[in-house]
Each structure stands twice: as structure tokens, then as C-alpha cells.
Amino acid sequence: MAQDTNTASTPPIVGLIAAVAATGGLLFGYDTGIISAALLQITPDFTLDTLGQQVVTSAIVAGALGGCLIAAPLSDRLGRRYMIMFAALVFIFGTLVASFSPGISLLVFARFILGLAVGMCSQIVPVYIAEIAPREKRGQMVVLFQMAVVAGILISFIVGYFLQDRSWRLMFGLGVIPAVILYVGMSLLPRSPRWLAMKGNLEGAFEVLQRLRRDPAVARTELDSIIAMHDEQAPWSALLQPWVRPALVASVGVALFCQITGVNAVLYYAPTIFAGVGFGKSSALLTSIAIGVAMLASTTFGSWAVDAWGRRTLLLRLIPGAVVSLLVLGTMFAIGATQGINTWITAAAVVSYAIFNVGSLSVAVWLVGAEVYPLSCRSKGMSLVAATHWVADLVVSLTTLSLVQALGAAGTFWMFAALNLAAFVFVLRYVPETRGRSLEEIETSLKDGTFSQMK
What GO molecular function terms would the record report (predicted)? Predict the structure, then answer.
């Protein structure tokens, strides 16, 4: 393996670039999370039944699916930075429409528009950060995106709690602030050096790498490795080539399990579920804030662990904790334990599930997707990862309340426990260890058939 770039040679601008880009994750988290509190007001305002609640919730997910698919060809053509700026403008438009929606139809439309922006950010922000970060800090920097996502979720829970007796329109409207920050910030940042190289602008790529790596010799070495691995932009069919398939299986599998293991069922519907079993609206919203704090803490830990432990090791160590937490949570609902000490056990099980699941699968999903594909089809591969994530999320958001009605809360959480166990088996079999390897070294491992042997 090539010698790692000296961490001391990485200038502060690299972290600043990653932080600004990750603001897209803050919007992602806020706009997906705020519905959990807003739904408690929107439901009586528009007289929504279970199906109506699920449609309002899932509209943003349907939009995200479309957004992540259109982002790939556009980001390859126009560049990663411009696509993030465009997504910020879409966020602003969708937020304003949602805030002033006079009826449910326009609100669903606005949520769909917000979803387009969320989908674009989920596809392109991790790719942009991965392509500007040095290898030894890539995991930590890409996870900044997920950290911003959970920070946005936590902020949405806090806002929802303090505005629970006021206006859901204001809940949505506050999202315009980070959207403006994202647009202005991205307008000042450089383009991806790997995108510039892919477009044939080697001089521009070298100039950006000099800013990012500080040492011209290091920048030249990195550019030479990019050029050596460079291929023309590949069509979608390239993802089905046998040598690319291991990356496809690993990244898409992690994206699928990230959703079907239940994290967004808890995120979207925790207040509704807990209020329905006797916690009361205020207590249910406070439980959501505790979940948000746990998610942020576990993501902060995960941002360290992906580089200190490794991506694969983190997943294998934390997923079993999610299984146990869900088994306990299901048991508490099965015995109707929502009073006294049992209430605290139930809340602790939810919080511990959030810690173990978010700290593993949610931390790894965007990182694995952004780093395992070859440059020629990286953007399209990441689109497929994001699309898988959002399709699974759409299914979860459309069915969770119906599952709770059909199986009961206990049966639903036990089902998610089984899916977390399946995720553990999948990681053990198909997900390699990419810690400490450059993007070009990972691409080489795909081409020489050693990708699956990286443990």
C-alpha cells in the first residue's frame, strides 16, 4: 500500500470545505425529521387518516428517489459543486411552498420538491467530500455529512418540541436558513479535483489539489494516480460489469439494510407511536429529543471509529446491540409496559437502538457508497446507492403505521430486530475493509479481484 499522506500536511481548508458541503446533510436531516412533530398538528388541521399521514410523510422520500437519480448525470456533466448549489435553491423553493401551503395537496407537492433536494444532496455531497479528502481523513470527513444529517434531525426534534402548540408552518419555514448558508458557502468552494481530471482539466485539478494538500509533490503524486486510473465516464450498464459487481453488492446492500432495519420508522413515527400507547404528546416529543441526542452522539463516535476501527469492524461491533435493543423494546410493548419503571426501560431501549443502529449502518452508508466505486461510474454508483436507500425508506414510511396496526408495536419491533440480524450476516459476508486505502487503490482491488479479500 502506498504511504499515507502526512496528516499534518492537510490544510484547514479541507475541513472547512467538508463542513460547508455537509450543510446539505443538515437540511436532509431537518426536512425529514421535522415531520415527526409537525404531523401531530397537521393531522387534525387537515383531518388526516393513517393513509394521509403516511402520504404526507413519504412524499419527501418519493422526491428524494427522483432527486438522487437525476443528480448523477447532471453532476457528471456540470460538476459536483454546481449540483449542490442547485439543490440548495430547490431546498429554498420547497421550504417556502411548504410553509405557505393552504391545503394538503400543495403540502404534499412541497414535500416532494424538498425530497428532490434531499435526494440530490444524498447522492452528490458524499461524493464531493470523498473526492476532496485525503485518504487518512476520508472516513471522518464523509461521515461529517451523516453527522450533519443527525444534527438536523436533532434540531428538528427540538424545534418540534418548543413549537408543539404553535405553528407547523414555522417548523418548516426555519429550514430556509441552512439552505441559504449552503448556497452561499458552496459558491466560494473549489470544484472536485477528480471531476476536473475526468473532464480533462488536469491543470485545474492540480491547482485544487495544491490547495487541498499544501505540498505540491503530494498533489502531483495524487494527480498522477488519478490519471493512471482514469477512464471515460461510463454508462449505467458499467455497474453490472463483473469486476464492479462486488462494489455494487456491498454498497447497495448497506444502503438497503440501513433503511429496512427500522431507523426511519423510529425517526418518522416515534412521537405518534409513543403518544398512541399512553406517553402523551409532550412526553413523546421529549423522547424524540432523547433519540436525536443519542443519534448525534453515536454518529460523533462513528466518525472517529470508521478510521480508528474501520468501516467493517464498526458495523460488526455495533449491529448486535441494535438487535438486543429491539428485542427488549418489542417485549416492553408486548406486555403493555408504559407505566413507572417500565416506561424508562422502553425509552432506554429506543435510545440504545438509535445509538447502535445509527452509529453503525447510518454512519457507514454514505461512506461505503462514496468510496467503493471506480471514478468512471462513481457518480452513477452513488446514485444507485441513494436510490436503494430512498426506495427502502419509501416502503418503510408508507407501511410503518400500517404494520403497527397489523402486527402491533411489539411485532413490528421484533421484525426489525430480525432484519438487523440479517444485516450483521450480510456485512460479515460481503462488506470489505476500505480504511486507509486511497480511492485509486480501492479501484485497483476491484480490477484485480481482491476487493472482497480486504478485511
Answer: transmembrane transporter activity
